[in-house]
Write a structure and sequence with these properties.
- The structure holds 2 protein chains of 2 kinds.
- Chain A is about 85% helix and about 0% strand.
- Chain A has 11 helices and no strands.
- The longest helix of chain A has about 50 residues, at about 220-270.
- The termini of chain A are far apart.
- Chain B is about 50% helix and about 15% strand.
- Chain B is globular.
- Classes of the chains: A mainly alpha, B alpha/beta.
- At the A-B interface, helix 9, helix 10 and helix 11 of A face helix 1, helix 5, helix 6 and helix 8 of B.
Chain lengths: ~375, ~375
């Protein structure tokens, strides 16, 4: 009896300990999670991003180490965090470059950025993959020399930059131009036509620098894809407009019903006393008022028109998305919907033919018996 | 010192909260208890199968049996087990208890491969084959057809094209005259760009149909119904019935694209059936070919198929023995309400019995032998 009680106490203590551990863990996780959304304080350009994001990484790392327990895994996580930290460092650099230079990003700047990027990968990510770790692998399968790979990578990017680096300029110029246009349009409120105009300007602006690449036969389908995407964007905007109208119409009777209900509720509760019967009556009023308002809406010509437009635009959008998906699938060994439809039709017609023939066989057999 | 009115409010609210809590506690017991949620439990045998379509023959429950059998044709929307939702509210069981021999078609669940199925395939194909099978099985030349909702429209079309095979026709909540503004479905369907929908979607999803039905009376069907459920959550019988009904409501097969396209265009949008201009497989469907006895049943409060859509059938056919029978209920209540079990089913059974033959025991045995022989063959 005593030992059972003792066991119970031990269990209870263990339970409390476990619970406290998890509560602490969750509380820290939440704290860290909310820290993520707190913008880091501005730092000097030269300072590493670790300083800004370290507040988030450090407790995360400690928490994971605590949860995982085993030193080997902790080691892997340490490396993982060092890689992530390096990425955030790069992201910060990129974010510092862009707003400063806007349209004047020189190829040299991009080159420096890429050099730093490769350097970072070499120092952290490649090191991580290449290092022996507790899973029993002493080197990466195949024995790839990542230092060599990174050098090849660097050289190819340098060549690419020399050839096409200057093309970035008009792209950035166009982005600035479009931003200015968007700001101008937004002054008086943006309409559907404004969106279309903005999109067309963007497309035309991008066409100038990018078309050179797209005219290369290998990237031809990409250009087709962009055209289809532009159509689907148009369909999407139309669908959004139609569905917004539909939902607004659906919301209107609710507002009207609530107004009417509040007036009727005031009348019911005039004497200040609330009884169960009054609640029931009030509920009935709610149902009847909503029902009537919705019936008026649903049987109106405006709603019929709205539901038609919403369905039509939804179908247009769906069709354009199907087209894009079909194009994507065409480049894979996966059968497309159109191809499946053809197969289905073939099977359907064959089945029909077989049924007809079977019927004829039965008829002939019966005739022969007679 | 609290004013009296505030005190009263508090008391009422506290009482309500306490009652709700108690009800929910009981409700949890009910929900976690063993509940009978099976639908379509009346014993039946699968007698015919073609593609995804199945036909069942219900096991007779009384010695007295009438000939010819009745073949029930349900709509493509939702499932036929609504006629046998629960033992105490089962149209099938009710008819069987009156000696009616019942067959029923289950249209199945169309998959993307069935998008090319047409109304011809359903009526001239599956339905026609089922009728022929029943004729052979029961050793008769004519059978009784009972069409429900869209199945009623199908039965009318079949009967107009093959009057020699139908002895008696019963249509229940069947839309015939689609040119009415009484039902919202009729109004909305008129403006649907059905070509675009079928071209894009292939089959029309069952969920799309469900949303359409819920929109007919959104506040009652999306809110009030569930409030009512919560109010009765501690009542096991109510919960069981409610879940069965929900199961049926949301068990919506997709609609085969081509069949749906023709149904919407020719019926809802052009109302060809009542004009005797509807074409099926190259044949014109002339409702004046219907000369067999007809019982046309419709719900006075039906918001899906309003009486204005069902009632005109009687005036469009040439039968001498014909009757409109209106019932004070809605589209679903006509089959599952306790009143319909007491009034409508016996009415249908007695109407059929008057126009059918009571089988003698020798004939019964002869039929069984034919059936056995066919099975052996």
């Amino acid at each position: 009896m005593e030992s059972k009680t003792a066991d119970k106490n031990t269990n209870a203590e263990a339970g409390t300990e476990n619970r406290n551990f998890w509560l602490d863990a969750w509380s820290n996780a939440f704290k860290n999670f909310s820290n993520m959304f707190t913008p880091p304080a501005p730092k000097a350009e030269t300072e590493s991003a670790e300083g800004s994001y370290g507040a988030w990484f450090k407790p995360q790392k400690e928490l994971l180490n605590k949860l995982m327990g085993t030193p080997e895994l902790s080691d892997v996580f340490s490396k993982f965090f060092s890689v992530t930290n390096a990425y955030s460092d790069l992201a910060k650099m990129w974010s510092l470059i862009l707003p400063k230079n806007e349209a004047n990003v020189a190829p040299d700047t991009i080159k420096t950025f890429l050099n730093n990027w490769i350097e970072n990968r070499k120092n952290s990510f490649f090191k991580l993959i290449g290092m022996p770790y507790s899973m029993g692998l002493t080197e990466v399968p195949g024995g790839v020399n990542f230092t060599e790979v990174s050098e090849i990578y660097r050289k190819s990017i340098e060549t690419w930059l020399e050839a096409y680096g200057k093309e970035y300029k008009p792209i950035f110029e166009n982005i600035t131009k479009i931003s200015q246009k968007a700001r101008d349009l937004a002054k008086d409120g943006i309409t559907h036509e404004d969106f279309v105009e903005l999109y067309d300007s963007w497309f035309e602006g991008m066409d100038e620098p990018i078309s050179k690449f797209l005219q290369i036969p290998a990237v031809g389908p990409t250009r087709q894809m962009l055209n289809k995407l532009s159509k689907s964007l148009d369909a999407y905007i139309k669908y959004c407009g139609a569905s917004a109208d539909f939902y607004l119409r659906m919301a209107k009777p609710s507002t009207e019903a609530l107004e009417e209900i509040s007036t009727q509720a005031a009348a019911i509760l005039k004497d200040g006393e609330i009884t169960e019967e009054k609640y029931r009556k009030f509920y009935d009023i709610i149902i009847k008022t909503f029902e009537k308002k919705f019936h008026d809406l649903l049987s109106s010509a405006g709603f019929t028109h709205s539901i038609k437009i919403t369905l039509d635009t939804a179908m247009e959008l769906r069709k354009s998305l199907f087209d894009i998906m079909e194009d994507n699938l065409k480049q894979t060994p996966i059968i497309t919907r159109t191809e499946m439809d053809d197969v289905h039709k073939e099977i359907y017609l064959l089945k029909k033919k077989v049924k007809e023939l079977n019927k004829e066989i039965v008829k002939l057999t019966e005739n022969r018996k007679r | 010192m609290e004013p009296q009115a505030v005190k009263n409010h508090k008391e009422v609210i506290l009482n309500q909260v306490q009652r709700i809590q108690e009800r929910f506690l009981h409700g949890m017991d009910v929900l976690t208890s063993n509940m009978d949620l099976e639908v379509g439990t009346t014993p039946k045998e699968l007698v015919y199968e073609e593609d995804k379509v199945k036909m069942y023959h219900y096991t007779p429950v009384v010695k007295e049996r009438y000939s010819p059998p009745v073949l029930m044709v349900y709509a493509l929307v939702n499932k036929q087990y609504m006629l046998d939702l629960q033992p105490d509210r089962s149209v099938i069981r009710n008819l069987l208890s009156h000696g009616i021999d019942v067959y029923i078609i289950d249209w199945g669940y169309p998959s993307p491969g069935d998008k090319y199925l047409t109304m011809e395939d359903y009526i001239d194909g599956y339905l026609s084959n089922c009728v022929d099978f029943v004729c052979k099985e029961a050793n008769v030349k004519q059978i009784n057809l009972m069409g429900i909702c869209q199945g009623g429209t199908f039965s009318v079309i079949y009967s107009a094209l093959n009057p020699e095979k139908v002895k008696n026709l019963i249509t229940t909540v069947a839309p015939i005259d689609f040119d009415t503004k009484d039902g919202l479905l009729h109004v909305w369907s008129y403006y649907l760009d059905i070509d675009k929908m079928v071209d894009v979607l292939g089959n029309i999803p069952g969920d799309f149909m469900n949303i359409g039905f819920l929109l007919l009376n959104p506040f009652r069907l999306i809110f009030d119904k569930y409030v009512n459920f919560l109010e009765h959550i501690d009542d096991k019988a109510f919960v069981s019935n409610f879940i069965k009904m929900e199961k049926w409501i949301f068990d919506s097969p997709d609609q085969a694209g081509e069949a749906f396209r023709k149904f919407i265009k020719d019926m809802y949008q052009n109302n060809l059936l009542v004009k005797n201009e509807f074409q099926l497989g190259g044949k014109t469907v002339d409702l004046r070919n219907i000369t067999m006895p007809v019982l046309n049943v419709f719900g006075e409060n039906d918001h899906l198929v309003p009486p204005a859509a069902s009632r005109p059938l009687i005036d469009l056919i040439r039968s001498k023995d014909k009757e409109n029978y209106s019932f004070p209920t809605g589209h679903i209540g006509i089959f599952v309400s306790s009143r319909s079990q007491k009034e409508l089913c016996p009415k249908v059974a007695s109407w059929l019995k008057k126009r059918s033959t009571l089988l003698k025991s020798g004939q019964e045995k002869q039929k069984k032998d034919i059936k056995k022989g066919r099975k052996r063959g």
